Amino acid sequence: MNIPVLRFPGGTAIDYYPWYYLIDKMPGKHQTRPANRLYKNPDDRNALISDGRMGLHEYMDLCKN
Asked: Nearest-5° angle of CA 33, CA 57, CA 15?
């Protein structure tokens, strides 16, 4: 695809995302990343949910390919 730049994490939603959810495969850390609301208001039913499938390791694999 000849993409010159891959930005991660990206977008304004990352301001509300706990950075430590993006890192896995560490001793004592859960194997699955928890789902996370991307807006601070917990009562917002329209908030986007990130399921955490794309973490730092997956991003690095994508860059290598």
From this structure: 60
